[in-house]
Amino acid sequence: MQLSVKHLLGIRDLTRQDIQLILDTATEFKEVLQRPIKKVPSLRDVTIVNLFYENSTRTRISFELAEKRLSADTINFTASGSSVSKGETLLDTVNNILSMKVDMVVMRHSASGAPHFLAKHIPAAIINAGDGINEHPTQGLLDAFSMREKLGKLEGLKVAIIGDIMHSRVAMSNIYLLKKMGAEIMVAGPPTLIPKYIKEAFDVRVEYNLKKALEWCDVANVLRIQLERQNQVLFSSLREYSLAYGINKRLLDSLNKEVVIMHPGPINRGVELDSDAADSKQAIILQQVENGVAVRMAALYLLSGGRGTMN
Amino acid sequence: MKTVLNEQQLAITIKRLGHQILENHVNLENTVLIGIQPRGIFVSDQIVREIRELVPANLVKYGKLDITFYRDDIRNSLQSPNHTDIPFSIENKNVVIIDDVLYTGRTIRAALDALMGFGRPAKVELCILIDRRFSRQLPIQADYVGKSIDSIISQKVKVFWKERDGKEEVVLL
């Protein structure tokens, strides 16, 4: 039993068996998290550095908690306030950290491909915690885990990914993963936020009408409008976006079925999701956060073992 | 290949182990039984079945414990976890851990660690179907033993179960 990859850089590199193995292992870790003592000694002698070059709350806390639940030693690095501001390169920073005998690196970076670059140059196992607009593999895995937990399967599931597809690494990881597991995918949102060739490139449905998308799907994975990545004007105003693509309880109640609502967070309340929808029983947003710890424990566990003495 | 226990002997041994556990925990009020995943649960299932014939079935608290995350050889080989299912508290209870073969003692060491994640038991006992004496790497011994055997390191004890292997037998390979 082993993953086919040494690093977790993206869902694109994983096989169906890898994904199955991570999700199944996460199920057992979720059970560990329900115990009175929520900690196992599996990674007791492993040191992990969390290298965050970009702001993050839940991913960083989730990884740190997962590492601590596995008894690993952790170091947290944030780019602001470090020697990066003095002009140190990424490779120099990481090599310096690795000299302190670190076994694994969890990395978030605003540049797509940054963890792939590191994987070519350093011996430690790397987990991508989000790189630019490329991939966010552990988010994709925890989304799939949450869907499987809620609906019992992934195969044949109809999933609509709604919102800013163009700038979303979560959307990319979701598409790769759910396609591999046999789900049907639709991307929905304004034409300006959906890449032009996505239909041909990924064999997904494209829908510009929110209500039609919701009527089609079992699960609506609603993405955040990434205000920090909107350099061009891709829609006229947030108010207009929320009128055309915002999901509220009234809209959900008007459908003839109960759609499961997911969101990777943080939510722009009143933009892509109204509070009455985000806090409704149909939303599994907080379960996603809970499952995130179990899925990250599984990824760390599976990437750490069976390799003899590291470094 | 040498037969250690044939089908009939195995059935009698399991019956005896069930009776011995009951002898020390007559009403089972403060006692819970825990089978070790993956192989120990075949013998624990059978022992629990025996005990349930002797006392009201609802009095027997029975759980299954997986020790994968507590193993000390993760650096050498990674194991897939099995399912843990302990739907009751073990706090201040007498816990009887059940496994099929006691050999180096490392599995039981991991099981004790895993068990402590669920609370603080009053007492822990160990019930083993086959005890391979003289091969222990840790100071662990069983309270209830089905059969003790002497074996050398190159030998293997294999336990066959009807549900899994189609026959019931313990052999020394």
From TrEMBL, chain A:
This protein's pathway: Pyrimidine metabolism; UMP biosynthesis via de novo pathway; (S)-dihydroorotate from bicarbonate: step 2/3
Nucleotide-binding among keywords: no
Catalysed reaction, written as an equation: carbamoyl phosphate + L-aspartate = N-carbamoyl-L-aspartate + phosphate + H(+)
Enzyme class at the top of the EC tree: transferase
Keyword line: Pyrimidine biosynthesis, Transferase
GO molecular function: amino acid binding; aspartate carbamoyltransferase activity
Cross-referenced SUPFAM superfamilies: Aspartate/ornithine carbamoyltransferase
This enzyme's EC code(s): 2.1.3.2
Residues involved in L-aspartate binding: K86, R169, R224
Domain Aspartate/ornithine carbamoyltransferase Asp/Orn-binding: 155-303
Pfam families referenced in this protein's UniProt entry, alphabetically: OTCace (PF00185), OTCace_N (PF02729)
GO biological process terms on file: 'de novo' pyrimidine nucleobase biosynthetic process; 'de novo' UMP biosynthetic process; amino acid metabolic process
Domain of life per record: Bacteria
Sequence ranges assigned to domain Aspartate/ornithine carbamoyltransferase carbamoyl-P binding in this UniProt record: 6-149
Binding-site residues for carbamoyl phosphate, renumbered to this chain: R58, T59, R108, H136, Q139, G265, P266
An example Gene Ontology CC term for this record: cytosol
Entry annotated with the keyword Ion transport: no
InterPro entries for the chain: Asp/Orn_carbamoyltranf_P-bd, Asp/Orn_carbamoylTrfase, Asp/Orn_carbamoylTrfase_sf, Asp_carbamoyltransf, Asp_carbamoyltransf_Asp/Orn-bd
Function: Catalyzes the condensation of carbamoyl phosphate and aspartate to form carbamoyl aspartate and inorganic phosphate, the committed step in the de novo pyrimidine nucleotide biosynthesis pathway.
Family the entry assigns: Belongs to the aspartate/ornithine carbamoyltransferase superfamily. ATCase family.
Record-linked HAMAP family: Asp_carb_tr
Assembly and oligomerization: Heterododecamer (2C3:3R2) of six catalytic PyrB chains organized as two trimers (C3), and six regulatory PyrI chains organized as three dimers (R2).
Protein name: Aspartate carbamoyltransferase
Species assigned in the record: Paraflavitalea soli
UniProtKB/TrEMBL annotation, chain B:
Top EC class for this record: transferase
EC number: 2.4.2.9
Domain of life, source organism: Bacteria
Ranges of residues in domain Phosphoribosyltransferase: 3-157
UniProt keyword annotations, A-Z: Glycosyltransferase, Transcription, Transcription regulation, Transferase
GO MF terms held by the record: uracil phosphoribosyltransferase activity
Similarity comment text for this entry: Belongs to the purine/pyrimidine phosphoribosyltransferase family. PyrR subfamily.
Name of the featured protein: Bifunctional pyr operon transcriptional regulator/uracil phosphoribosyltransferase PyrR
Organism of derivation: Paraflavitalea soli
